[in-house]
Design brief:
The chain is of the alpha/beta class and 259 residues long. The protein has helices spanning 42-46, 48-51, 54-60, 70-76, 94-97, 112-119, 207-213, 217-234, and strands spanning 3-12, 20-29, 32-36, 62-63, 84-88, 107-111, 135-139, 145-146, 149-150, 152-153, 162-166, 175-181, 184-188, 238-241. The strands form 3 sheets. Strands 4-1-2-3-5-6-7 form a 7-stranded mixed β-sheet. A hairpin with a 2-residue loop joins strand 12 and strand 13. The longest helix is centred in the last third of the chain and has 18 residues, at 217-234. The mean pLDDT is 96. Bound molecules: zinc ion.
Length: 259
């Protein structure tokens, strides 16, 4: 069975909001690794203004701390970053794609809708994060159903099945990533919610920011409703985690300073 490691690969602080993290997954299968989202990368840390620009840094509250990058987190686990053969992106926003260039040989798996949005030159993405020429592998619409949601099986060759689950709205091709763990599944929902509390309430203070940052807010709300149904009907089979809520890091995981 594929082992799942949880890594915090970055911190974001915006005044008036809780500190949030970049909760990536490292999937380990024999000696092969796959990273789900990549956090803030080495290039971002070494040249923040040149890569991201001051306006974005201030807007999103990026914090730069090299030990938090995926490369350093993987090394700290005693694994080799060179063993990362695959990167799976929930979407290509700059706080998710920052580490992509640190794994230049990895195949990068994402929805074809997200890839198209990146290629279109959409303002929300940072072209410098893709300048190394990622080895993209895209996945289009599928007839496979997973707890009533569309599922696109990923070609990782791992012993546990890994699925891309379209949860569009935050971006046009935003997806969750489901990883089978025996009889159960872990679903990484990416940014389908920022904070877990949004599952329980529509008027959460962060919902306004989520609506503003969504490429298609009606789709974003439909995706959130799909997750609510999943929690209501299948919580014994599926565990959800999001990318930004620090309370969803494993118990005992070191939290960012001051949070
Ligand atoms: Zn994000």
């Amino acid at each position: 069975m594929t082992t799942i490691h949880h890594l915090n690969c970055g911190t974001l602080r915006v005044s008036g909001y809780p500190t949030v993290v970049c909760h990536c997954l490292l999937l380990e299968d024999s000696d092969r690794l796959a990273l789900v989202d990549t956090g803030i990368g080495l290039h971002d840390v070494r040249d923040p203004d040149g890569r991201l620009g001051r306006q974005l840094i201030d807007l999103a509250g990026f914090q730069f701390h090299e030990p938090d990058t995926a490369v350093r987190r993987i090394e700290a686990l005693g694994r080799s970053p060179g063993a990362v053969q695959h990167v799976v992106l929930t979407h290509a926003d700059p706080d998710h794609a920052g580490g992509l260039a640190d794994f230049p040989k990895a195949q990068v798996h994402l929805s074809e809708e997200e890839r198209a949005s990146v290629s279109s030159g959409h303002w929300r993405y940072v072209p410098a994060q893709f300048a190394h020429g990622p080895d993209w592998k895209t996945y289009g619409p599928s007839t496979r159903s997973w707890f009533g949601l569309e599922a696109r099986p990923l070609a990782l060759g791992f012993s546990s099945e890994v699925l891309l689950i379209p949860l569009f709205g935050h971006t046009l091709g935003h997806c969750g990533v489901a990883v089978r763990q025996g009889e159960r599944w872990l679903l990484h929902v990416g940014d389908a919610y920022y904070l877990r509390a949004e599952l329980a309430m529509d008027d959460h203070p962060v919902s306004q920011m989520a609506a503003q940052r969504a490429d298609d807010d009606a789709a974003r709300r439909a995706s959130l409703d799909a997750l609510r149904r999943l929690v209501r009907d299948h919580s014994d089979e599926v565990e959800l985690i999001g990318y930004h809520d620090l309370s969803e890091l494993p118990a005992g995981y070191p939290l960012p300073d001051g949070s």
